[in-house]
Design goal:
With 315 residues, the protein is mainly α. The protein contains 14 helices and two strands. It has a domain of 213 residues.
């Protein structure tokens, strides 16, 4: 029971971090139809800005300022870069954001260097939050969960309960009508892109302290972000939330288990020896294949339900 509860809590906390990261990508795609390949790079920018600001101001001011600065940078990218290539279609957008990801990574190396940054968890959030049986659950993981849920609630209120949210949703399906009513649709899209990158920056502030802040951090989380977005359904925030939790829990449990097909067969009286065909495959432990499981889920989802768990868009 202890293993189950602790693994579940760790899986939920990791899943909520994935949601913080993928929600911005999902928001941008749902509102603009833009698949931002550089999204994880804004996650990295948020982590580096939080580290730099934290040296002068402390962690909590950096928690608010770093996402704002990341969002402003994202808005400028949309205004002076992405908007100009948008007229040429999705391929041009993909190529633009693909190149942007490499440009940001190299810029980070030039500014901060190749070594990882000593970005640490603040002392007030360091240590155990509570002890379950004999295992302690860290304060920072609890804080990570709280921030993710607060972000989810805030985005929901903004989109569903405010005039700004109504304008954003209307601009997606009826941009000409919204423009005729006096709203600046390109500015709306710029704010959406900036908001999406700000959410990635927020995830970077949390993830950079929880894990590691280095130039390769964007490349390490970039693929899993797209897995979450596709499994949840492109453009669905609710789907991204469910997919994030699913992937976080599955990976956390898988990493902690040493099950193998050979062991399962041995339990029912079927022996697997070195002479058995594909012996190395039978002996693979679940913990060894845990990193592959999200991508296996992605392939199965694309085969059997291409729109994802809660997706509605086909493009």
């Amino acid at each position: 029971m202890e293993f189950f509860l602790i693994s579940l809590l760790n899986g939920v906390s990791y899943g909520l971090l994935l949601f913080m990261l993928s929600s911005g990508l999902t928001l941008i795609f749902s509102m603009m139809g833009v698949l931002n390949f550089a999204h994880a790079s804004f996650y990295m920018i948020g982590a580096y800005l939080a580290y730099t600001l934290g040296l002068k101001l402390g962690f909590f001011p950096a928690l608010f300022l770093a996402p704002i600065l990341t969002g402003l940078f994202g808005a400028l990218i949309e205004r002076f870069g992405l908007r100009k290539v948008h007229r040429y279609g999705h391929v041009a957008e993909l190529l633009f954001t693909f190149g942007l990801a490499y440009l940001i990574e190299e810029s980070v190396k030039v500014i901060w260097g190749l070594a990882s940054m000593p970005y640490r968890i603040p002392a007030v959030l360091d240590g155990p939050l509570f002890t379950l049986y004999t295992t302690s659950f860290p304060k920072f993981r609890g804080f990570m969960m709280l921030v993710a849920l607060a972000m989810l609630f805030s985005v929901y209120l903004l989109l569903m309960r405010t005039r700004i949210g109504l304008v954003i949703q209307a601009a997606l399906t009826h941009p000409q009508t919204v423009e005729a009513l006096g709203h600046n649709v390109p500015r709306v899209f710029m704010l959406v892109f900036g908001g999406g990158t700000a959410l990635a920056g927020l995830a970077g502030v949390i993830g950079g302290a929880a894990f590691i802040t280095e130039p390769s951090m964007a490349a390490s989380v970039g693929p899993i972000v797209f897995v979450v977005a596709v499994v949840g359904g492109m453009g669905s925030l609710a789907g991204a939330f469910l997919a994030s939790l699913l992937i976080g829990i599955v990976q956390t449990f898988a990493i902690a288990l040493d099950w193998s097909l050979a062991g399962m067969l041995a339990a029912v009286g079927i022996g697997v020896t070195e002479s058995t065909p594909l012996y190395s495959l039978w002996k693979l432990q679940l913990s060894q294949v845990a990193p592959v499981l999200p991508y296996l889920l992605l392939v199965l989802m694309l085969i059997f339900r291409p729109k994802g768990l809660l997706g509605t868009r086909a493009d």
